Amino acid sequence: MQYPMLTEAAIKAAKPKDKPYKKFDERGLYLHVTATGSRLWRFKYRFAGAEKLLSLGAYPDVSLKRAREKRDEARELLADGIDPSSKRKAEKVAKADTFEAIATEWLELQRGAFTEKTFERAKWTFERLLCPALGTMAIRDITAPDVLAVLRKLEVRGKNETAHRTKQRASQVFRFAIATGRADRDPTADLRGALAAVVTTTHAAITDPVKVGELLRAVDGYNGHPTTEAALKLAPLLFVRPGELRGARWEEFTLDGDSPEWRIPAERIKMRELHIVPLATQVVAILNELRDITGPNGLLFPSLTDANRPMSDNTLTAALRRMGYTSDQMTAHGFRTIASTLLNEQGWHPDLIELQLAHMEHNEVRAAYNKAQRLAERRKMMQAWADYLDGLRLAKVGEQQ
To answer: Are 27 and 10 in contact, with CB atoms under 8 Å apart?
Structure first.
């Protein structure tokens, strides 16, 4: 049967009915109108004796003119003995096996396991460093020299640590591809020893008790925004990671009762497990004052420009610089080093200190014991630590636990 060719007016006039129906153009092209009103282009053809359909998109995203062009492109493939549907499937499979496609898939799987900051950093690594060179390559075809070429560009810029981290991210994607049957091996394994070594440095910190006392007195004398002052006072008492402190929320705290504590949810902890911070009386006093300013809901330390975002990660560092401490003397992360060093010197059990620092416990049996049995001991340690810092602040250096 010969149908009149479609026009734009006829397509626009095609209204939904109780059942789907077709409006034909010519040479196999027709418009499939669904009961919900969608208008979908289809190309009906025969290949190897079988009738087949090829989807060409939806109107109006694909115009009548473009639909006819797509039909003609498919007919050219048929003239060359190529099935358009099979060709499309092959292209999808090839695209799904590129480094970029697999990296994107892997990254989405990590979204729930990564903190937002870690996720964004990983995404940046793929988008800015790896995918421009490797993204369109089939992952099976990528060799160690291909990856090394990317990493060498970072080394030339003096980004040795970034090069090593980028290699680790690439390796995670290759191993995921192996596990899902899309790669046979991880080429980054052949790069062992090929990158310049990273010179590790510790976070600058003051660990001499007398100078720690001076630092605490400087914090007391800091004249800045009240939330920054509170964060500076809490940092040495809590010695959590700076990002965990900045992101603290009031609903995570229990300040009443005999056992006040801060329960940091797993998604905000580097080790991906709930972390409990027992609160000394000095901490509770600071928090009660701060609650009058930023509480009782939301962030403890909101940004001055957006209450839904935490203060900048540079806020505490900038405050230390205003107090006269250089980057070689003291950093925001250095408060953790102070606690780790001095608590160990005072003879507290290393397990208690490591637990309170939220470091990874590799021994599973020991980890389970620590979690179940040592919270009461950590409460005692955190109160003794706060009392010790008070002593340093008052220049009573000889007083310890």
So the answer is: no
- Looking at the chain, the domain(s) classified CATH 1.10.443.10 span 209-393
3-state secondary structure of 24: strand
* Edge-to-edge strand ranges of the sheet holding 253-254: 253-254, 261-264, 275-278
Tell me if residue 203 is catalytic.
no
- Topology classification of domain 8-84: Double Stranded RNA Binding Domain (3.30.160)
Distance of CA 103 to the CA centre of its chain: 14
Average pLDDT, the chain: 88
Q: Catalytic annotation on 362? A: no
**Active-site annotation holder among 167, 241, 246, 379:** 241
pLDDT digits (tens, 9 = 90+) for 46-59: 998 889 999 999 99
Q: Say whether 222 is catalytic.
A: no
Determine the pLDDT at residue 362.
44
- CATH topology assigned to domain 99-191: DNA polymerase; domain 1 (1.10.150)
The reply to whether 270 belongs to the active site is: yes
DSSP notation for 79-137: HTT--HHHHHHHHHHHHHTBHHHHHHHHHHHHTTTS-HHHHHHHHHIIIIIIHHHHTTS
State both tokens at 287.
Answer: 């928090």
Please identify which of the residues 32, 66, 270, 291 carries the catalytic annotation.
270
Q: What is the pTM of this model?
A: 0.52
List 22, 95, 359, 366, catalytic entry: 359
Cα–Cα distance, 291 to 301 (Å, whole number): 10
**Paired strand residues for 276:** 263
Q: Is the predicted pLDDT of residue 399 greater than 90, yes or no?
A: no
Q: Checking DSSP bridges between strand 39-47 and strand 29-33, what pairing results, if any?
A: antiparallel
Q: Is 68 in the active site?
A: no
Most confident of the following: 87-91, 336-340, 355-359, 366-370: 336-340
Of 150, 151, 335, 376, nearest to 245 (Cα)? 335
In this predicted structure, what is the pLDDT of residue 261? Answer: 95
Which candidate in 68, 182, 336, 378 is catalytic?
A: 336
pLDDT, average across residues 184-213: 83
What is the average per-residue pLDDT within 331-351?
90
Residue of 333, 378, 379, 388 marked catalytic: 333
- Fold topology of 209-393: hpI Integrase; Chain A (1.10.443)
Catalytic residue among 121, 322, 369, 380: 369
Note if 359 is an active site residue. yes
